[in-house]
Write a structure and sequence with these properties.
Low-confidence stretches of chain B: none
Oligomer: heterodimer
Strand content of chain B: under 5%
Mean pLDDT of chain B: 93
Helix content of chain B: over 70%
Mean pLDDT of chain A: 85
Strand order of the largest sheet of chain B: 1-2
Number of strands of chain B: 2
C-alpha cells in the first residue's frame, strides 16, 4: 500500500471519527451512543490497519486487531448487556441541551484543528489530520464526561477519549510496543468491567444511573 | 537477587490474591496476607541493602531495574504494607463482628489487598515506563474495588469519582508516555525497550525538547491526578476517607508515593533535554496550590479521615514543591519528607480507623476524650499529629526546614517561605482538631472498642521507625537518600 493512499484514507477515517464523536455527544438514547461508539472504534481499527500496512509494521496491525476485539466487540457488548438488564429509561440526560453540545463539540474541533501545529509530530505516512483529530476526540470525550449525568454515558465519554489516544498512537506516534498495547487493553477492559459492576450497584442503591445522586461527599 | 525479589514482591502476592479470591475462606486469608506482607517487607529490605552496597541492580534481561530512587519507594510500600496487614486483622474482626462486612467480603478484602500490594510493588521495579503505566492503572483498579468494599451509596460515590477521574488522569499520563516513546524512537529505534528507563536515561540529552516538554505536561497532569495535586485532587478526600482504614493508610501513605515516583522519572528526562526552568515552574505552581488549597478544608473539617486525606494533599504539595525548588538540599528534603509522610500518615489513619470504629462515627465532635477513653490509640493519634505537623525531633521538621533552606539557597526564598507559611496554617488547623479530640471532656455514653496486640503494633511500629530514622538515622538510610538525590539532580 502506498503512503499517499494510506495517508488519504487515514485522514478521511480520522475526520469521520470526529463526526461520529459529535453524534455521540448529541445522541438522545444510550443505545444510539453505544452504537456510534462501536462504529467509531471500527473506523479506528481501519485507520490503524492502513497505517500498519503502509509502514509494514506488524505491531500496528496487531494493535488494530486488538482495537477491534476490545472496542468494537467486548466493551460495547458488555455495556449493551447492562443496558438491557436495567429497566430504567434509556434516554440520555445531559446538563446542556443537545444543540449546545453539538455547538461546543464543533467549536472544539475547529479550534483544535486550526491551532494544532503538528510540526514536532511529522508523521511518517503524512496523514496531517490524524493528530488534530485525535486531540479533538480526547477533548470531546472529556466534554461528554463533564456534561452527561448518567454513569453509562460517562463511560462512553471515557472510551471516546481513549479512542482519541489510540488514534494518535496508531497513526501519528508510530504505535506503542505490542506488549504495552496488550497491557493497556487489559487495563481498559478491567476498568470498563468495574464500571459495569458499579453501574449495576448504583441501580440497586439509587434506582437510577443518574450521577446527580453522587452529592453526599462534600467539603 | 533482584530477579527472585521481583518474584517475591510481585508474583507471590498476585498468586496468593488469586488463591484467596477463588477459594480460601475463614481465618486463613488473614494469616496468608500477614505472612506474605512479612516476606515482602523482608525481601524489599534485603534488596535495599544490596542496592546500597552494590549500586543499581537489574534482572530478567533488563525488565526489572532497581536503583536508589526506586528502592525508597519499594521499601516503603512493603513495610507500610506489613503494618496495614497487621492493622487489617483487628479492623476487619470488628467490622465482620458487627455485621458491616460478610465473611466473603473479608476474603475478598484480603485478596484485593494482596493484589493491590503486588501492583504497587511492580511500579518502582519495572524498567519500562510503558509497563510501569500498566501497573499504575492496575493499582487504580485494585484500590477502587477496596474502596467500594462497603456497599453503601457513599462508598460507591467515592469509588465512582476515583475510577472516572483516575482513569482520565492516567489516560493523559499514557499519552505523555506515548510522546516520550515517539521522542525516543528516533534515538533508539522502535523496539519494546525504547521506553526502558536505563536506555532513555542514556540518550536523554538527545530527545526532542519540544516533544518532551509536551509529554511532561501530560505526565504531570496525568499522574498528578493520582498524586492528588490541586486542582485535580477532588476525588482524593472522598476515596481516602471512604476506604477501610488500613487501606486509607496504604492509599495515602504509599500509593501517592508511587505516582510521585512516576512523575520524578519523567522529570529527570525532561530536565536533561529541555533544561530545568520549565519543569521547576510547573512543579512549584502545582505544589504551592496543593498546600494552600488544603488549609481551609482542614480547618473546617468534621470528618477525621477527610481531614487526614486533605493533609495528604498538602504533604504531596510539599514534596512536589521541594522537587520544583531543586538543588541538593531541597531534593534531599523531598525524599526525606516522602519517607516521613508515609510512616506518619499510615499510623494516623490506623489510629483514626480505631476511633471511627469505637465511636461509630467519623465526626471528630463525637470523638472527644479519646485520650482518656482509649489511652493507647489516643496517644498514637496525638503523637502522629505532632510528627505530621513538623515538630522536632521528627524528620518532617528536618525536611520542611531543608525545603526552606534549599529555597533560599537557590534564590527562591519567597516561594519556599510561602510554602512553609501555608503548611504552618494547615499544621495549626490539624493540631487544633487533634487536641480537641484528645483532651476535651468525653460525651456521655461514648463508645469503646477492644485494643488488640496487632492494632498496637500497627500504630506504634511506624512511629517508632520514624523516630529512629529521625533521631539516629543509620548510615545506609542516609546513603540511599543521597544517592537518590544524585539521580534526581540532573547535571
Amino acid at each position: 500500500m502506498s503512503h499517499e493512499f494510506a495517508a488519504g484514507a487515514i485522514d478521511i477515517l480520522a475526520i469521520s471519527m470526529v463526526v461520529l464523536a459529535v453524534g455521540i455527544v448529541s445522541a438522545r438514547s444510550m443505545g444510539l451512543a453505544l452504537t456510534l461508539f462501536a462504529v467509531q472504534s471500527l473506523l479506528l481499527a481501519l485507520a490503524g490497519l492502513h497505517a500498519g500496512l503502509a509502514l509494514e509494521s506488524w505491531h500496528i496491525v496487531a494493535g488494530a486487531v486488538l482495537v477491534t476485539a476490545v472496542k468494537v466487540f467486548l466493551a460495547p457488548v458488555l455495556l449493551w448487556t447492562l443496558l438491557r438488564r436495567l429497566p430504567t429509561s434509556h434516554a440520555v440526560q445531559a446538563s446542556l441541551s443537545s444543540h449546545w453540545l453539538v455547538f461546543l463539540a464543533v467549536l472544539i474541533a475547529l479550534v483544535t484543528i486550526r491551532s494544532l501545529d503538528t510540526r514536532p509530530f511529522d508523521t511518517e505516512i503524512g496523514a496531517d489530520q490524524a493528530l488534530p483529530a485525535a486531540v479533538t476526540l480526547m477533548l470531546i470525550g472529556m466534554l461528554i464526561m463533564v456534561t452527561h449525568r448518567q454513569a453509562l454515558t460517562q463511560v462512553v465519554g471515557f472510551l471516546v477519549l481513549e479512542n482519541g489516544m489510540a488514534l494518535a498512537a496508531l497513526t501519528a506516534l508510530n504505535g506503542m510496543p505490542l506488549l504495552i498495547e496488550l497491557g493497556v487493553f487489559l487495563d481498559l477492559l478491567l476498568a470498563v468491567f468495574v464500571a459495569f459492576v458499579y453501574t449495576q450497584r448504583m441501580h440497586v442503591i439509587f434506582g437510577s444511573l443518574d450521577t446527580e445522586h453522587f452529592r453526599s461527599l462534600r467539603g | 537477587m533482584t530477579g527472585p525479589a521481583f518474584a517475591a514482591l510481585v508474583l507471590l502476592p498476585a498468586v496468593a490474591a488469586l488463591v484467596i479470591w477463588t477459594g480460601l475462606r475463614g481465618r486463613l486469608p488473614a494469616i496468608v496476607c500477614l505472612a506474605i506482607t512479612a516476606v515482602m517487607a523482608a525481601v524489599s529490605l534485603a534488596v535495599g541493602l544490596e542496592v546500597e552496597s552494590d549500586g543499581p541492580q537489574s534482572a530478567l534481561s533488563g525488565w526489572v531495574y532497581v536503583d536508589e530512587l526506586s528502592v525508597i519507594v519499594l521499601v516503603l510500600i512493603s513495610v507500610v504494607g506489613l503494618f496495614a496487614a497487621l492493622n487489617s486483622q483487628s479492623y476487619l474482626r470488628h467490622d465482620v463482628g458487627s455485621g458491616d462486612l460478610s465473611a466473603t467480603d473479608q476474603s475478598h478484602y484480603y485478596a484485593l489487598f494482596l493484589a493491590f500490594m503486588a501492583t504497587m510493588a511492580a511500579v518502582p521495579m519495572l524498567n519500562n515506563l510503558g509497563i510501569m503505566w500498566v501497573a499504575m492503572e492496575a493499582t487504580t483498579i485494585c484500590s477502587v474495588l477496596l474502596i467500594s468494599l462497603y456497599r453503601t451509596g457513599r462508598a460507591l460515590e467515592a469509588a465512582w469519582k476515583y475510577l472516572v477521574l483516575g482513569s482520565v488522569g492516567i489516560a493523559l499520563a499514557l499519552f505523555g508516555t506515548m510522546m516520550t516513546y515517539y521522542a525516543a524512537a528516533g534515538g533508539v529505534g522502535e523496539t519494546t525497550d525504547a521506553l526502558n528507563w536505563t536506555r532513555l536515561q542514556a540518550i536523554s540529552g538527545q530527545l526532542e525538547p519540544d516533544v518532551m516538554r509536551l509529554a511532561f505536561v501530560f505526565v504531570l497532569i496525568g499522574y498528578g491526578t493520582k498524586v492528588g495535586l490541586a486542582p485535580l485532587h477532588t476525588w482524593l478526600p472522598d476515596a481516602h476517607s471512604q476506604a477501610p482504614s488500613p487501606v486509607s493508610g496504604l492509599l495515602s501513605g504509599v500509593l501517592l508515593n508511587c505516582a510521585v515516583y512516576a512523575i520524578l522519572r519523567f522529570k529527570i528526562l525532561t530536565v536533561a533535554t529541555a533544561g530545568p526552568s520549565y519543569t521547576d515552574q510547573l512543579m512549584i505552581g502545582f505544589g504551592l496550590l496543593s498546600i494552600a488549597i488544603a488549609v481551609p478544608f482542614i480547618l473546617v473539617q468534621h470528618d477525621i479521615k477527610r481531614m487526614l486525606a486533605y493533609s495528604s494533599v498538602e504533604h504531596m504539595g510539599i514534596i512536589v514543591l521541594a522537587v520544583g525548588i531543586g538543588g541538593r538540599i531541597a531534593l534531599f528534603a523531598a525524599m526525606l519528607h516522602l519517607v516521613a509522610h508515609a510512616l506518619t500518615k499510615s499510623s494516623l489513619f490506623f489510629a483514626a480507623g480505631f476511633a471511627v470504629q469505637a465511636f461509630g462515627s467519623r465526626s471528630m465532635n463525637r470523638m472527644r476524650g479519646l485520650l482518656s477513653l482509649a489511652p493507647l490509640p489516643g496517644a498514637a493519634l496525638l503523637l502522629g499529629a505532632v510528627a505530621l505537623v513538623g515538630m522536632p525531633p521528627f524528620a518532617m521538621f528536618t525536611s520542611e526546614y531543608g525545603l526552606l533552606l534549599g529555597a533560599i539557597d537557590g534564590g527562591r526564598g519567597v516561594v519556599g517561605a510561602l510554602g512553609i507559611l501555608f503548611a504552618a496554617f494547615a499544621a495549626a488547623s490539624l493540631l487544633y482538631h487533634v487536641i480537641t479530640v484528645s483532651y476535651r471532656e468525653p460525651r456521655p455514653g461514648a463508645g469503646n472498642a477492644e485494643v488488640s496486640l496487632s492494632f498496637v503494633l500497627s500504630v506504634s511500629a511506624p512511629l517508632a521507625l520514624l523516630l529512629w530514622l529521625s533521631v539516629a538515622p543509620p548510615a545506609a538510610f542516609e546513603s540511599i537518600l543521597n544517592h537518590a538525590v544524585d539521580i534526581l539532580e540532573v547535571k
